[in-house]
Amino acid sequence: MKSTLDQIEDIRKNxxxxxxxxxxxxxxENYKKIALYAGLILLVFSILAFFLGGGILVxxxxxxxxxxxxxxxxxxEQTDSSILMIYTxxxxxxxxxxxxxxxxxxxxxxxxxxxxxxxxxxxxxYYTSRHFPNLFIATLSISLLGGLISVGFSLLGIMFxxxxxxxxxxxxxxxxxxLIIFGExxxxxxxxxxxxxxxxxxxxxxxLVIVGGLASMVGFIGCCIGIVFTIPITYxxxxxxxxxxxxxxxxxxxxxxxxxxxx
Length: 263
What we know:
The chain has one domain (20-63, 79-246). By secondary structure, it is mainly alpha-helical.
């Protein structure tokens, strides 16, 4: 079985094929296995995050300050460069700290794909894993890059370009986390490899990400709370893209077994 780095080197030289329908069908079948469990976890932690965030704001500003004028002042302060920089740093560190949480959902998708048992602890398993430093560093680096670019264009008064660049960065680094937790790569190699891999098939991967994102938004129809049960499809799409490109031992063994006699 070739290592992940060997497979990545083959991809660098020869590219790879990626069939949209096969990947999305794989993602949807995987999503059906994790939707209820992952949705309940997201619902619980979304509620906890809402009350925790609200409590922090009330503690900092006092409940009496939450009025229309408060939000107008908050909006006007966003144009100040120091406020934008602080905001960028906070968002980057929060994203980095939550990256093992995202990795946990990908691990859940992997367990479901292999018909292995998973539970709540699966979501938090990477906080105590050897992968945590690489997950944190990789996500922090990506978030800071995107955030600083966004701040730069905002200060220059150039609209929408920062959003476009952020989308491009997100697309080309979309395989970073699975390359760390499944491919055993370090933060820098995972980022570089993700950019290289996506650059070989950017339009197919972009279409998969867009369709996955649109599918996750279906939860807004009828009852907005349903969004927490459709968001997991984005994790399944990410996982399915990775597995369609990078083989694991089970994939290799199943391919080698095709056409072989049992005798």
